[in-house]
Write a structure and sequence with these properties.
Elements: E1 12-17, H1 18-30, E2 38-43, H2 46-49, E3 56-59, H3 76-85, H4 87-94, E4 99-105, H5 110-125, E5 129-135, H6 142-155, E6 161-166, H7 170-173, H8 180-203, H9 212-219, E7 224-234, H10 241-250, H11 257-262, E8 266-273, H12 279-290, E9 298-305, E10 312-322, H13 325-329, E11 337-340, E12 367-370, E13 382-383, E14 386-387, H14 392-395
Parallel strand pairs: 1-2, 1-4, 2-3, 4-5, 5-6, 8-9
Antiparallel strand pairs: 7-10, 8-10, 11-12, 13-14
Helix pairs in contact: 1-8, 3-5, 4-5, 5-6
Length: 404
């Protein structure tokens, strides 16, 4: 095989969960972007699945007794139970793929409650996964924001790559008088194009670092907010199609504009083209794209050749903003943890030797280490923010008298 030919990774599935995920897959199929990919959706609202163009549709009932398929009304517990009951169906549906891209909107009930089940099934099957999810607007209720944040905490240990897109980025690019229906339609189209672009890049053999390992090195395990933009231009639109694709990428609703890209902590930029992509065009385009990034940012550039976009070029950018280190770890548990034991009694200062420099006295830190043991690699089991896999006496920091 020559260096400019595509090497497919195998079967790729783009999977939509909940109402937003179903809308993205519908747009993906109707626009023709799903060519070469399998598609599937799962939802608790049966009306959203009527006539859906996805290859496979899974109707999960949020009410085990009634099975009326009217959705779960934003209740994440009902959403979690609904998809947990479909675990066997989801396992059979997802088995056999080489890459799965999951898209959903967080804050509601079905996706927010059920994505953990989907991620657990994918991880159990050992399939590389990319989760592309949106966060609620800032003006939405606090409970939706809280539910979305809790879902991200649960997905971080399970998903290979987690891309979180704040809906508030739409305000940075769309005019204030833009009709709300048009804005959400543009957002759905952008998510569909992004899901197809990521799947295409990761499936193809990269000429310059565009592979799954590149994405994982920048994103796995990190809690971050991402801006994502895609721009496509064809040969029939002029001689300089690459700069046109770059301009359209910067205008993407979910990228957040040039300022969001310039202030990013890390960025991934991938140029995809057909066999007609020349070396000079690739070099010029990547140099222009790299010049938009801050010098201190970790920049990952890649180029991929795809047969499905002959005569076109597609530029995909992921601007990554890492959150505060303390927030980035969230509630995730690692192999060992340290917690400061509160003082229960007054500690006597240590005696100092004559001539010691300064009055400083070294006190005891009182750190306690504990581990989740055999549950370390399993999803967290929580109840009201408590990790139930950690023994109660350790969570409550109790001293047990073991005798002398």
């Amino acid at each position: 095989m020559s260096g400019t030919e595509t090497s497919a990774r195998g079967k790729v599935l783009i999977f939509g969960a909940g109402g937003a995920g179903c809308s993205v897959i519908r747009r993906l199929k109707n626009s023709g972007l799903a060519e070469g990919f399998d598609t599937a959706v799962v939802d608790t609202d049966s009306s959203a699945l009527e006539g859906h163009p996805a290859d496979r549709c899974v109707a999960a009932s949020s009410d085990w007794i009634l099975k009326n398929g009217v959705g779960c009304g934003g209740d994440i517990i009902r959403g979690e139970r609904a998809l947990a009951r479909e675990r066997g169906t989801l396992t059979n549906l997802l088995r056999g793929y080489d890459l799965i891209v999951v898209t959903a909107g967080l804050g509601g009930g079905t996706a927010t409650g059920g994505l953990r089940t989907i991620a657990s099934v994918i991880r159990g099957l050992g399939i590389p996964s990319v989760f592309l999810v949106t966060l609620p607007f800032a003006f939405e209720s606090f409970s939706r924001r809280r539910n979305a944040e809790a879902c991200i905490d649960e997905l971080l240990p399970l998903a290979d790559i987690l891309l979180t897109l704040p809906d508030d980025l739409l305000f940075s690019r769309l005019p204030p008088d833009c009709p709300a229906a048009e804005a959400f339609d543009m957002a759905t189209a952008e998510l569909a194009g992004t899901a197809a672009g990521i799947a295409s890049v990761l499936r193809s053999r990269g000429l310059a670092g565009a592979d799954f390992a590149v994405f994982m090195s920048a994103l796995r395990g990190h809690r971050c907010a991402c801006g994502i933009g895609t721009g496509t231009a064809g040969s029939g639109e002029g001689i300089d199609r690459a700069p046109l694709a770059l301009e359209r990428m910067l205008d993407s609703p979910f990228l957040g504009g040039l300022d969001y890209l310039k202030n990013s902590d890390s960025a991934i930029i991938v140029l995809s083209g057909g066999k007609d992509l020349s070396l000079a065009e690739m070099k010029r385009t990547m140099e222009q794209a790299a010049s938009l990034l801050p010098p201190q940012a970790e920049t990952l550039l890649g180029t991929a050749i795809e047969q499905g976009i002959a005569g076109q070029v597609r530029l995909t950018a992921i601007a990554i903003h890492y959150q505060d280190p303390e927030q980035s770890t969230g509630r995730r548990r690692t192999a060992s943890h340290r917690t400061v034991r509160p003082k229960t009694e007054k500690q006597e200062p240590r005696e100092t030797t004559p001539g010691a420099a300064g009055p400083f006295v070294q006190g005891e830190l009182g750190l306690t280490s504990f581990s989740r043991g055999v549950f370390e690699r399993l999803p967290l089991v929580r109840y009201h923010e408590l990790d139930l896999d950690v023994p109660t006496f350790q969570r409550r920091d109790l001293n047990i008298d073991k005798g002398s």
